[in-house]
């Protein structure tokens, strides 16, 4: 292989190709459609990346991940409302909120797997929803939520649509990069092992509970980060950011994109957002369509889009 | 004070009726059947639809509603549950969730997204000791005891029941005796679903009938199964009444926290008795 070819291969192996695709893809999409909407899509993709850390990489599906998104959203909102309207502090507080929830709930949640894992997340999601809607309504604004104004620093203005787009895109690339490094690290290998056969990993001497807990905290933090970005993007937050009924969105996105693959969550997130924003205009019963699609995926199309593409490319590589 | 106990027993009774099917499917097939919540909702909606047709005769409408729910649960069992069982338990949960989603949207399409009113069919109160309790709730409590007794007899005395209990304990041994255990589990699935529909009908008049009622009930069923043990008949009964009491007590002190409290209890149980499956 010539030097040029080696360089190209290195670029695409390290995920550089994917990053380039995301930058070009989203920018083109934003200026063809609406910058504001595509920013929304990007933030959702970050959320799906956080969810996929647990589902695709560790094999545990959570049906209550909105809790962590909401923790971030409300963490940021409360910080902006009661501390200072500084947006960066809000982001940090939101992530801290998500991480705290992960630290506290981790030891309970992470001991379960399969259906129990899925449903215990729902249960905590319901408790969180109740807290936000009723118990702490005095602070959270209850059903109406909180609307916020963030301070600006020259060009770092979260009210500016273009700045928001660039910021969120960079955040997505950052999270993507972190997930890539994770996948190729020893920790990532450990998670993959836990997904395959946890007992064996324990036999090798690892305390799998700690590693699962850490992965859980990472997942909740990334989801919380997405939550803070939603709050910044919309300028308000309300219980719909922690609503248990919306969990189907991220589950569908992760599944259709391809769980565990590199670009899968981004593809899936974009796919879901496109469906819910554009298809909904033409087909009123699009939620029925979503359920049907989910059913078909569960039966026939488990690897999702990226997974199937990977399979195809592997088959082609085998032939040559 | 006694009112709280009575209400707790009512909710507990309904929880039992609804959860027993869920617990059996969970214990026998290791499948978390979200579609169980759909049958529950179908039962309630079918009742609301039947009532005007039978001119307000609640009993007849109830029977018809259960009959309507049977083909729905049969279709779900045949096309979804049976295909998933044994091969892909992980995807079973996604598939049954998808079925529930589709069902909820169909309900919204047919009946609209607004809650439907359903009123207490008896409407009279019974005076016991120092307080009054709606007779309807007494009927529910008695019915739940009856169903518990009936199911206990069914599982102890009839052949089908005994096979199912054995299958819950050791599936392969039963198959080794030459018995097609899947057929029996399918029968149990239908029975459990019919009970879920019944639960939906009974609970409808004292709560709301809305498209998302299925989601709520599935999480409650799951809490019952976690607290009581999956596939454990007596455990499900005990857990149902205990959680019913928890709900009633919480509702007395702080209304909206009732549901959340059940999940808190479930979380505590999971800390001390994590499930391995």
Structure description:
The complex is a heterodimer of chains A (320) and B (277). In chain A, α4 packs antiparallel against α5 and α11 runs parallel beside α14. A two-stranded antiparallel sheet of chain A has the order 1-2. The mean pLDDT of chain A is 87. Chain A has 320 residues and is mostly helical. Chain B is an all-alpha fold and 277 residues long. A two-stranded antiparallel sheet of chain B has the order 1-2. In chain B, a hairpin with a 2-residue loop joins β1 and β2. In chain B, α1 runs parallel beside α5 and α1 packs antiparallel against α10. The longest helix of chain B has 28 residues. Chain B is globular. The chains are: A mainly alpha (320), B mainly alpha (277). At the A-B interface, α6, α11 and α13 of A face α3, α4, α9 and α11 of B.
Please describe the topology of this protein.
The complex is a heterodimer of chains A (320) and B (277).
Chain A: H1 3-13, H2 16-32, H3 35-55, H4 66-83, H5 87-109, H6 114-135, H7 137-140, E1 146-147, H8 161-183, H9 186-203, H10 208-234, E2 236-237, H11 247-257, H12 264-282, H13 286-300, H14 304-319
Antiparallel strand pairs in A: 1-2
Helix pairs in contact in A: 2-3, 3-8, 3-10, 3-11, 3-12, 4-5, 4-6, 4-10, 5-10, 8-10, 9-10, 11-12, 11-14
Chain B: H1 2-29, H2 35-53, H3 58-84, H4 89-111, E1 125-128, E2 131-134, H5 135-157, H6 159-169, H7 171-176, H8 181-203, H9 213-228, H10 233-253, H11 257-272
Antiparallel strand pairs in B: 1-2
Helix pairs in contact in B: 1-5, 1-8, 1-9, 1-10, 2-3, 2-4, 2-8, 2-9, 3-4, 3-8, 5-6, 6-8, 9-10, 9-11, 10-11
Can you summarize this structure?
The complex is a heterodimer of chains A (320) and B (277). By secondary structure, chain A is mainly α.
Sheet of most strands of chain A: 2 strands, antiparallel
Overall structural class of chain A, as computed from helix and strand content, comes to mainly alpha
Mean pLDDT of chain A comes to 87
Order of SSEs of chain A, N→C?
A: HHHHHHHEHHHEHHHH
